[in-house]
Design a protein that fits this description.
heterodimer; A: 724 residues; alpha+beta; Aldehyde Oxidoreductase, domain 4; Aldehyde Oxidoreductase, domain 3; seven-stranded mixed beta sheet; B: 160 residues; Ubiquitin-like (UB roll); DNA polymerase, domain 1; five-stranded mixed beta sheet; 5 strands
Chain lengths: 724, 160
C-alpha cells in the first residue's frame, strides 16, 4: 500500500492507493517534475507567427470549387416556389440544390445552394435565384413566444424546460429567515463570433475515399456525421484539423453547410470549399441563450444563507438548451429552480464556453451582494461564511489581497471606483475513451499521436509535455501529431474534458513505451529493467549509464510502437469534486456618461496539476477577456418584426478590443487533484464563469445602484442612477 | 457576366510577381486565392476585424477593402515576408515565446500592425499600442500578451 498526497500547500490529505502493475504510477503533490508545470511556448507557435500554419480556410487545390447557400431573409415563412433555372444556366455553375416547400423557422436558414467555379460566379448565381415566400408571423423574444396566440415555432409548445422541485421547502425556509430579497436579472444572447468561420474543404479521391479539412472541435464527430450525411462508409472518411480559428463550443460536428459542400464535391468530382461568411456565422452558427432570472433569496442576520429559488426563462432559438446554473456555489439550507426553455424564430443556440454558467453566476452573485447589503455585511465576508469548498476558501483571501478589496467605493468627482467579486465551480471532467499512440524510433525520435484537435488551447503542447515528463526526456525530443482521424480516438473538445481526459492516457502510453525500451536495454547493458529509470534523457539504474539516444540506437527493432488507453488510469482517489475559482474586479464608472471602464481583474483559478504554466495563464486571460466582453458589450439584436439580426457583423456586434483591456492578474492555483494518474483538471470553461458577475458587482458597488441586466451599457448605468 | 482577368505586377515582400486576376478582386483575394499566400487570414470581408491586415507602402491596410489593381507599383508586405534569412523577426519570436498567439487566426494581422508601429515608434508606450492595435480584434487571449510581445521586441530591436 502506497500513499498518495493530494491537495495544495496548507490543505493536503493522504489517500491510500496501490498502483496496479500495468498502470503508470500516479503523480501527486510530492512528485518532482522536470518538464511539467513550467512555461512552454506552444509547439506550433512558429508556424502560427510565420503564416505557415494551415487552417481549413487555407486549404487550396488548383481545381477547387466554391459552395454557398442562399439564406432566408425572413424568420418565419413558407417557401412557395424556388426558380433556380437562371442560376443553373450561368456558365461556371456546377451544382445546385433548391429546397422547395421548405418551412423557414429562422432568418439565415438555407433555402438553396450553389457550387461554382469561382466565388464571383457563385455570388452572381445566388443573386439569380428567385424565391417566393409566404411570410408568416414570427416571435423572436421570450416574451413574444410566450404571449397568448404566439406563433408556434416547431411542433409542440414553444415553452419547454425543467419543472422545479422543492419550492415548498424553499418557501418554508424563506418564512423562517430574517430577510428575503427579490430581484429580476437578465442576460443577452451572445454569438460565438469565431474568427475562422464554420465550414470545411473536402475532396474525394478516385477510390471514393473522402478527406475533409474541417474547422471543428471534434474531428471524430465530424467524421461520423459527414459519413452519414454523404452516405460514405466511415472508414473511408478522414477528417483533418491541424489548426482552427476558434470554436468556443459552437463547432461540434458537421453542419448543413458541410453536408452541402460534400455533396457538391461528390457530384462534381472536384474539391469544394464552404466556409460561412461573417453574417451567416452570427445568424446560424450558434449562440449563448439569453435569460430572465427571477430570484428570491433569504438569509439570517448572522449571515447564514437560508433559501434560494430561481425561476428562469430563456431562448436557444429553434433549439433547446436555455437554462442557468443558478443557484449554485454557496451553501443554502434549501435551494432550487424552475427553468423554462422557450423556442423562438431564431438561430439555434449551441454550447458556449461554460453553458448556463456565466449567466447563472451573474444573477447568483448579484443576489449574494443584494443579500449582503440588506444585512449590512461585507459581501466578501458573506461569501466566505457560506462557502465550504476547501480550494475556494483558500482563494477568496488571495483575490482580496491582489485587488486591494475595499468595503466602500472610492472617487470624489463624477468617476466612481467600485470593487466586486464572484466565484465559480466546474466539474473535473475527465472522461475515459481516449487512446494515444507512442512511437520511439531507433533514431531516437519520439512521436505521440492522437486524432483529436487543438483549438488553440494548447493540446498539442500539453501532450508533448506530459509525454516528455513520463518518458524522462527533454521536451525537444518529442513530436506530436494531432488532428487526423486516422490516429487513435480523442474526445470532442467540449466541457473542458480534453486536458483531464487525455493527460493520463498520454502518461500511460509513455510509460508503456518506456518500460518496453528499458526491457530491451537491460538485455543489452545488463541490469534489472524494473529498477531502471529514464531521467532527463539518461537511462539510470543499469550496469552502465547511457543516454536516451544511445539506448534507442541499441533497440533490436526499428521502433517501439504502443498505444495507451484509458483503462485503469481513472481509478485514482480525488481531492475535491469541484474545480473552484474566484475573480475580483475593480471598475471606474463615469456617472455623467454611464461609461464603465474595467481597471483590473484578478483571476484565482484551481488549475489542477498544472501541465504548462503558459497555456494555463492564456486560458485564464482568455476567460476574463471573453467574460468582460460579455459583461459590457456583446448583444445579438434581432428585429422583433422581421426576426432578422440587425448587427450581424463585427462593427455593430461589439466584442472587447485592445483599448478595452484592463490589467489582468492571473493567479493559478496548482492543486494535486488525483482522479486520474495525471491529476490534470478542466480549465478552459471555468476561467470565464465569474467575470461578468464580478464586473457587475463592482459597477453596482461604484454607483450604489444595481444594474441587473447584461451587457452593462451606459444607458443602463444612467437608468440605474435615475439619470435617464 | 464574364470578366476578363487583368495582369499586374505586384511587389510582394520585396519580390515582383506578374499576377493575373479578376479586376474587382480585393488584395486579400488576390494574395490568398491567386498567389496562394494564405498567411494573411480572412475574417469578415467587411473591414471590421483587422484579421487581414497587410502593409501597403509601410502603412497597415485592411486588405479586404483594397482593390488589388490599385496596388501596382506599391510595396506590399505580408506575414510571409517578416522572417529574414536568419530566422523569425524578433516580433515573431516574442509572439511565439509569450503565447501571444492562441488559436493564431488574428496573429498575422496583429503582427503586421505591430510591425508598422515599431517602424514609426521604436519604443512605443502602452497607450500608443492600445491606440494603434484598436483595429485588430482577437477572440481568444491575445491583447495583453501581444502588448508585452511588442514591447519586448522593441527592446530587442533597439539592442540590435
Amino acid at each position: 500500500m502506497s500513499d498518495l498526497k493530494l491537495g495544495f500547500p496548507g490543505n493536503e490529505k493522504n489517500e491510500n492507493f496501490e498502483t496496479p502493475d500495468n498502470v503508470a504510477p500516479p503523480w501527486d503533490a510530492t512528485t518532482k517534475f522536470s518538464v511539467m508545470g513550467k512555461p512552454h511556448p506552444r509547439l506550433e507557435a512558429e508556424d502560427k507567427v510565420t503564416g505557415r500554419a494551415k487552417y481549413s480556410y487555407d486549404i487550396r487545390f488548383p481545381d477547387l470549387i466554391y459552395a454557398k447557400m442562399l439564406r432566408s431573409p425572413h424568420a418565419s415563412a413558407r417557401v412557395k416556389s424556388i426558380d433556380i433555372s437562371k442560376a443553373k444556366a450561368l456558365p461556371g455553375v456546377l451544382y445546385s440544390e433548391a429546397r422547395q416547400g421548405l418551412t423557414v423557422r429562422y432568418a439565415g436558414q438555407g433555402v438553396a445552394g450553389i457550387a461554382a467555379e469561382t466565388e464571383e460566379i457563385l455570388d452572381d448565381a445566388l443573386a439569380l435565384i428567385e424565391v417566393e415566400y409566404e411570410v408568416l408571423p414570427c416571435a423572436v423574444t421570450v416574451e413574444d413566444a410566450m404571449a397568448p396566440g404566439a406563433p408556434q415555432v416547431l411542433n409542440g409548445p414553444n415553452v419547454g424546460g425543467r419543472p422545479g422541485r422543492g419550492k415548498e421547502r424553499v418557501d418554508a425556509v424563506h418564512k423562517d429567515a430574517d430577510i428575503v430579497v427579490e430581484a429580476e436579472y437578465r442576460t443577452q444572447v451572445q454569438t460565438h463570433s469565431c474568427f475562422e468561420t464554420h465550414g470545411c474543404v473536402c475532396k474525394f479521391d478516385d477510390d471514393g475515399s473522402l478527406t475533409v479539412w474541417a474547422s471543428t472541435q471534434s474531428t471524430f464527430f465530424t467524421k461520423t456525421a459527414i459519413a452519414r450525411a454523404a452516405r460514405v462508409r466511415p472508414e473511408n472518411v478522414t477528417v483533418i484539423t491541424e489548426h482552427m480559428g476558434g470554436g468556443f463550443g459552437s463547432k461540434f460536428g458537421a453542419d448543413d453547410w458541410d453536408r452541402f459542400c460534400v455533396l457538391a464535391a461528390r457530384a462534381t468530382k472536384r474539391p469544394c470549399r464552404y466556409l460561412l461568411d461573417r453574417r451567416a456565422e452570427h445568424l446560424i452558427a450558434g449562440n449563448r441563450p439569453d435569460s430572465i432570472q427571477k430570484c428570491r433569496f433569504s438569509a439570517n442576520k448572522n449571515g447564514t444563507l437560508m433559501g434560494a429559488w430561481v425561476e428562469s426563462w430563456g431562448t436557444a432559438g429553434v433549439g433547446r438548451g436555455a437554462g442557468v446554473q443558478n443557484p449554485t456555489i454557496y451553501r443554502f439550507r434549501a435551494a432550487g429552480s424552475e427553468q423554462k426553455d422557450v423556442r423562438t424564430h431564431a438561430g439555434r443556440g449551441r454550447a458556449f464556453r461554460a453553458p448556463r454558467h456565466p449567466q447563472g453566476v451573474f444573477a447568483l452573485e448579484g443576489m449574494i451582494d443584494e443579500v449582503a447589503f440588506a444585512l449590512g455585511m461585507d459581501p466578501l465576508a458573506l461569501r466566505q461564511k457560506n462557502d465550504a469548498h476547501p480550494v475556494r476558501s483558500a482563494q477568496w483571501p488571495v483575490g482580496q489581497k491582489a485587488i486591494g478589496w475595499r468595503k466602500t467605493p472610492r472617487g470624489n468627482g463624477a468617476v466612481k471606483i467600485g470593487y466586486g467579486c464572484a466565484g465559480s465551480r466546474w466539474g473535473h471532467n475527465a472522461r475515459p475513451g481516449d487512446a494515444v499512440r507512442c512511437r520511439i524510433g531507433k533514431d531516437g525520435s519520439v512521436l505521440f499521436a492522437n486524432g483529436s484537435q487543438d483549438l488553440g488551447t494548447g493540446t498539442r503542447t500539453l501532450i508533448a509535455i506530459l509525454g516528455a515528463e513520463e518518458l524522462g526526456v527533454p521536451l525537444s525530443f518529442v513530436d506530436v501529431r494531432l488532428g487526423h482521424t486516422t490516429d487513435p480516438y480523442g474526445h470532442a473538445s467540449g466541457g473542458s474534458v480534453t486536458a483531464p481526459s487525455i493527460a493520463p492516457v498520454v502518461k500511460q502510453a509513455a510509460w508503456l513505451a518506456k518500460r518496453e525500451l528499458l526491457e530491451h536495454i537491460a538485455k543489452k547493458i545488463g541490469g534489472d529493467p524494473k529498477k531502471m529509470e529514464l531521467t532527463d534523457g539518461d537511462v539510470l539504474g543499469g550496469k552502465k549509464k547511457i543516454t536516451f539516444k544511445q539506448a534507442c540506437a541499441l533497440l533490436p527493432v526499428d521502433s517501439i510502437d504502443v498505444t495507451g488507453d484509458s483503462r485503469n488510469v481513472f481509478r485514482v482517489p480525488r481531492f475535491s469534486r469541484e474545480v473552484a475559482g474566484v475573480q475580483f474586479a475593480r471598475v471606474a464608472v463615469d456617472t455623467e456618461t454611464g461609461l464603465v471602464k474595467v481597471q483590473k481583474i484578478v483571476s484565482v483559478q484551481d488549475c489542477g496539476q498544472i501541465v504548462n504554466e503558459l497555456t494555463v495563464r492564456s486560458q485564464m486571460l482568455g476567460g476574463v477577456i471573453q467574460g468582460l466582453s460579455y459583461a459590457l458589450f456583446e448583444n445579438r439584436l434581432l428585429d422583433r418584426n422581421t426576426g432578422d439580426m440587425v448587427n450581424a457583423d463585427l462593427l455593430n456586434y461589439k466584442i472587447a478590443g485592445a483599448r478595452d483591456m484592463p490589467e489582468i492578474e492571473t493567479i493559478p492555483f496548482n492543486v494535486a487533484q488525483g482522479g486520474t494518474t495525471a491529476g490534470v483538471s478542466s480549465l478552459g470553461e471555468p476561467a470565464t464563469v465569474p467575470t461578468a458577475g464580478a464586473i457587475a458587482n463592482a459597477v453596482s458597488h461604484a454607483i450604489d445602484a444595481r444594474v441587473r441586466s447584461l451587457p452593462i451599457t451606459p444607458d443602463k448605468v444612467l437608468a440605474a442612477l435615475g439619470a435617464l | 457576366m464574364t470578366l476578363r482577368r487583368i495582369a499586374k505586377r505586384l511587389l510582394v515582400n520585396g519580390e515582383e510577381h506578374e499576377v493575373s486576376f479578376l479586376p474587382h478582386r480585393t488584395l486579400l483575394e488576390v494574395l490568398r486565392e491567386d498567389m496562394a499566400l494564405t498567411g494573411t487570414k480572412h475574417g469578415c470581408e467587411l473591414g471590421e476585424c483587422g484579421t487581414c491586415t497587410v502593409l501597403l507602402d509601410g502603412e497597415p491596410v485592411l486588405s479586404c477593402l483594397v482593390l488589388a489593381r490599385e496596388c501596382e507599383g506599391r510595396e506590399i508586405e505580408t506575414v510571409e515576408g517578416l522572417a529574414g534569412a536568419s530566422g523569425p523577426h524578433p516580433l515573431q519570436h516574442r509572439f511565439a515565446e509569450l503565447n501571444a498567439a492562441q488559436c493564431g487566426y488574428c496573429t498575422p494581422g496583429m503582427l503586421m500592425t505591430a510591425m508598422s508601429v515599431l517602424r514609426k515608434t521604436p519604443a512605443p508606450d502602452r497607450e500608443t499600442l492600445r491606440r494603434e492595435l484598436a483595429g485588430n480584434l482577437c477572440r481568444c487571449t491575445g491583447y495583453l500578451k501581444i502588448y508585452e510581445a511588442i514591447e519586448m521586441a522593441a527592446e530587442d530591436l533597439q539592442d540590435g
